[in-house]
Every structure is written in structure tokens, then in C-alpha cells.
């Protein structure tokens, strides 16, 4: 077996790893969109996502989870002629067509007939597989198994096994590995063994701040933000992060109500979810509550609705979105706005930023990773010094206060990555992917210090 990475090699986007067998067949694990400075060329996403490697021998595609940086180039793969099976968990199979439809609209075409043709084709290729069950892969001498990754709903890491001369060789692709104790989601399943582990390293050089206290810190930051009125803008991925935030905000509001403190900020706090995708996925998260963790299920049993509470307001139409942006521009009413995209590269968040970054009452709260070259990264870096950011070729001066809340991550940190590697049978070889150079280097050093295994990819 040999693994070639066609994406997420130097950075964190465009995840795509090809597993090549000795018989010349291969399979792809993920086929993600390039974003930010990892899009080669002038940054116009649509032009630089072409599949630039041969696919004639690709027999199967395995999808770890439905984030755009892991699935966004599926339409390009279909255009290039791929017609083989696409394996994923049942939840991912359910969510994927929505993600791809959105990717098509943003990046390729508005032609409704073309979009529905691609989506219909995609549906015929999807093969949902239950967690923890070995399944044969296409006509290949392989079997694969999806294990809980605890990253977003339906997310998995994937084990692929080939029997060579009576011995099973196992390659494991981490996909995006979640943290322990994430809201809503079960913890990642511990690793059993791996001859080759293709491991993400997003936070390979960092340990998250204490996650148990993060809800309190979220509460404090927001209380500080709204003390001078104005909106709190939280750029967030539509899938995963938005639902986590809603879950935690519901809990804060619930506890503040229970304590009944008069004049409490949270009594009248409005939480606006302004993203059609986030709205749709929040609905789907509610439908698939079987996949929630025990704590979340207990809240349901207690008649609480963590993803659909009284002061949560979902903005559907574009007209309503424009009305709200204008309203906030003029009133400065305290409220929380959660909108995509998570790195401010597009979506409705961009309109909020253009309207409200120059207003000192505004606060922007980053709770997720900002890749280099994205507006989110620029705001995070230059905002606190009163700098500017260029969004959609418009220069916006930043008067808003900028905050970054650590400990709020959908990715395992260095400690957790090392813990994951600590399998009963030692890992033989680790290939680091999906991380910036400093993150990979630091993780490689930490791995070498603790385990007797080969490390590559850094
Ligand atoms: Zn992800």
C-alpha cells in the first residue's frame, strides 16, 4: 500500500488521500475543497478545484465527514468521470447531498437542472455503512470500517485493511478527529491498531485551554461584549460548530433563568442563526438525535430543546437577512449572530462584517480555526490593532473589538492526538497531514519523544 496526498498536505484544506494498492487499483479518502491561500491562482475558488491527478484506476471513494474541505470537490470528481461507489456513514450520506448542492451553487453553477442532475447522480453512488462494521470495498481486495471521530454528526475515522501473504495490513485515516467532551457528540472511539496512520495535525502544536470551563468563558466574553451594547458576531461553520454553540448558549440561558437574577443580560438575549445551511443542518441534527451523546439526550428527556429554544431566531430569506443587517447597523441592540462562513470567506457573515466591523460597539468572537489567507485570519491578526481587512475587494476598517475564545475546537489538540495514538498495539508509521508546518513539526517531535514509530509528512 502507498498513500499519496492530493490535498491537505501543506495546509488544512482540500483533504484528499489516495491509497494505492500493488495491483494498481486505488481508492480516495475524502475529496475536499481548497480554501484561502491554498487555492492556487488568484483565489477565485471555482477555477482551481479541478482534479489534477489520474482517476481511471480509482475504484472507490471513502468520505470521513461532510465538511466542505473534505467533500467539496466531489462535483469536480463526477465531472472528471468518476462513477464508482462513495462510502460513508448513514448520517453523512443523509447530509452530503445538501452540502454538495450548496458547494455547486457557490462554486460552479446556478443552473437548477444541472444541480439536480449532479445531486441525483451523487445519490446513486452513495453507500451508507454503519459504524463499527467491516465492509467490502468495491471490487478491491480490501475491507473498511468507520469509527466514531466525535468531530461533527456522522463523522468517522476510517480503517482500511488488506490481507497480504496472510497478514492484515491496516491503514487508518483520521479524517478530522474531534475532542473529548464535545457538546452533543460522543468521544472518538479509541484506536485499536494501525500499520500506517494518516493523522490530522491541525492543533499539533497546541493544547486547548480547559474545555470544562469553556462555557463559563463563553458566557463571560459575551457578557463583556454586550456591556457596551452592539452585536456579537460569531463566524461559524454551518455544520457542527453552529449546533455546538446553540447547545451551549441554551444551557447558559437555561441556568440564568433558573437562578432568576434580575436585570441579567441573558434574560432578553436574542440568538440569531443567519445561514440557510446552518438552519437546515440544525434541523437535521435534531432529527438525528439518536447520535447525540448521553448528556444531550438527558436534556431532551428533561423536556429541554438544546437546538430549538425560545430566544433562538432563524433567518431564512435573503430579504430578512438584509433587514436584520440594516437594523443592527442602526440600533446597536445587543444580540448574538451566528453565521457562516466560519473563516469569513463568504456567506452571510460577510455582510455583517462589512456593515458592523467599523462600529466600535460590535464584537467579533472567533471560536474556530482561521486558515492563513482568509479574511477571518486577517481580522483576528490585524483587528486588535485597529487595522483593516479586504473583503470581496472592499477595504473595511476595523473598529470592532476582536476576541478569540480558545478551547473551542472541533479538532483534537496535541495531548489528545498523542492519546489517540496510544493504541494497545503500537502504531508503526505515522504520516502527518492537515496542518500548518509548525503544527506538524511540533507534533512530529512529540510523537518521536513518546513512541517508537516512523513519522513522515512534516
Ligand atoms: Zn471537519
Report on the structure:
The chain has 458 residues and is α/β, with parallel strands linked by helices. The protein has two domains: 2-206 and 410-456, Ribonuclease Z/Hydroxyacylglutathione hydrolase-like (Metallo-beta-lactamase, Chain A); 211-404, Rossmann fold, CATH 3.40.50.10890. It is 32% helix and 22% strand. The protein contains 13 helices and 21 strands. Helix 3 (90-107) packs antiparallel against helix 4 and helix 9 runs parallel beside helix 10. It is globular, with a radius of gyration of 22 Å. Bound molecules: zinc ion. The site of zinc ion has 5 residues, from loops.
**CATH architecture descriptor of the largest domain:** 4-Layer Sandwich
Q: What would you call the structural class?
A: alpha/beta
Small molecules (ligands, ions, cofactors) in the structure = zinc ion
What is the domain tally? 2
Range of helix content: 25-40%
Q: What's the shape?
A: globular
CATH homology-level superfamily of the largest domain: Ribonuclease Z/Hydroxyacylglutathione hydrolase-like
List the uncertain runs: 40-46
Number of helices: 13
Mean pLDDT over the full residue set: 90
- DSSP E strands, number: 21
CATH class descriptor of the largest domain: Alpha Beta
Topology:
Elements: E1 2-7, E2 16-20, E3 26-29, E4 58-62, H1 68-71, H2 74-79, E5 86-89, H3 90-107, H4 112-125, E6 126-129, E7 135-136, E8 142-148, E9 156-164, E10 167-173, E11 196-200, H5 214-226, E12 231-235, H6 241-259, E13 271-274, H7 276-287, H8 294-301, E14 312-315, H9 318-331, E15 335-339, H10 349-356, E16 363-366, H11 375-382, E17 388-391, E18 394-397, E19 401-404, H12 414-421, E20 429-433, H13 437-450, E21 454-456
Parallel strand pairs: 3-4, 4-5, 5-6, 10-11, 11-20, 12-15, 12-16, 13-14, 13-15, 16-19, 20-21
Antiparallel strand pairs: 1-2, 2-3, 7-8, 8-9, 9-10, 17-18
The structure holds zinc ion.
Zinc ion binds next to loops.
Amino acid at each position: 500500500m502507498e498513500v499519496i496526498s492530493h490535498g491537505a498536505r501543506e495546509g488544512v484544506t482540500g483533504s484528499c488521500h489516495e491509497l494505492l494498492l500493488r495491483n494498481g487499483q486505488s481508492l480516495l479518502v475524502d475529496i475536499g475543497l481548497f480554501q484561502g491561500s491554498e487555492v492556487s491562482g488568484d483565489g477565485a475558488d471555482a477555477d482551481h478545484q479541478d482534479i489534477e491527478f489520474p482517476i481511471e484506476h480509482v475504484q472507490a471513494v471513502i468520505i470521513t465527514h461532510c465538511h466542505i474541505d473534505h467533500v467539496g470537490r466531489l462535483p469536480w470528481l463526477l465531472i472528471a468521470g468518476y462513477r464508482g461507489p462513495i462510502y460513508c456513514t448513514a448520517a453523512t450520506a443523509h447530509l452530503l447531498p445538501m452540502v454538495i448542492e450548496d458547494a455547486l451553487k457557490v462554486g460552479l453553477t446556478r443552473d437548477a437542472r444541472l444541480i439536480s442532475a449532479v445531486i441525483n447522480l451523487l445519490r446513486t453512488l452513495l453507500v451508507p455503512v454503519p459504524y463499527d462494521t467491516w465492509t467490502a470495498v468495491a471490487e478491491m481486495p480490501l475491507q473498511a470500517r468507520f469509527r466514531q471521530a466525535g468531530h461533527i454528526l456522522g463523522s468517522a475515522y476510517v480503517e482500511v485493511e488488506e490481507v497480504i501473504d496472510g497478514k492484515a495490513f491496516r491503514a487508518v485515516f483520521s479524517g478530522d478527529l474531534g475532542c473529548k467532551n464535545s457538546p452533543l457528540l460522543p468521544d472518538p472511539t479509541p484506536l485499536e491498531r494501525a500499520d500506517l496512520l494518516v493523522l490530522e495535525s491541525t492543533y499539533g502544536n497546541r493544547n486547548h485551554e480547559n474545555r470544562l470551563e469553556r462555557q463559563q468563558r463563553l458566557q463571560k466574553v459575551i457578557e463583556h461584549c454586550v456591556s457596551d451594547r452592539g452585536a456579537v458576531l460569531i463566524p461559524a461553520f454551518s455544520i457542527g460548530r453552529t449546533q455546538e454553540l446553540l447547545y451551549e448558549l441554551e444551557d447558559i440561558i437555561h441556568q440564568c433563568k433558573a437562578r432568576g437574577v434580575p436585570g441579567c443580560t441573558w434574560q432578553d438575549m436574542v440568538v440569531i442563526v443567519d445561514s440557510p445551511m446552518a438552519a437546515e443542518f440544525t434541523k437535521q441534527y435534531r432529527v438525528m438525535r439518536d447520535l447525540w451523546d448521553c448528556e444531550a439526550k438527558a436534556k431532551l428527556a428533561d423536556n429541554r430543546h438544546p437546538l430549538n429554544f425560545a430566544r433562538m431566531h432563524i433567518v431564512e430569506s435573503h430579504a430578512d437577512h438584509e433587514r436584520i443587517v440594516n437594523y443592527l447597523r442602526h440600533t446597536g441592540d445587543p444580540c448574538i449572530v451566528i453565521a457562516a462562513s466560519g473563516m469569513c470567506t463568504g456567506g452571510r457573515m460577510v455582510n455583517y462584517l462589512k456593515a458592523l466591523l467599523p462600529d466600535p460597539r460590535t464584537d467579533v468572537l472567533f471560536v474556530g480555526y482561521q486558515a492563513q489567507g482568509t479574511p477571518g485570519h486577517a481580522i483576528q491578526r490585524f483587528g486588535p490593532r485597529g487595522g483593516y481587512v479586504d473583503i470581496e475587494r472592499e477595504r473595511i476598517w476595523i473598529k470592532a473589538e476582536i476576541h478569540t475564545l480558545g478551547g473551542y475546537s472541533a479538532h483534537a489538540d496535541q495531548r489528545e492526538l498523542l492519546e489517540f495514538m496510544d493504541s494497545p498495539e503500537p502504531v508503526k508509521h505515522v504520516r502527518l497531514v492537515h496542518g500548518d508546518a509548525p503544527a506538524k513539526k511540533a507534533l512530529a517531535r512529540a510523537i518521536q519523544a513518546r513512541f517508537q514509530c516512523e513519522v513522515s509528512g512534516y
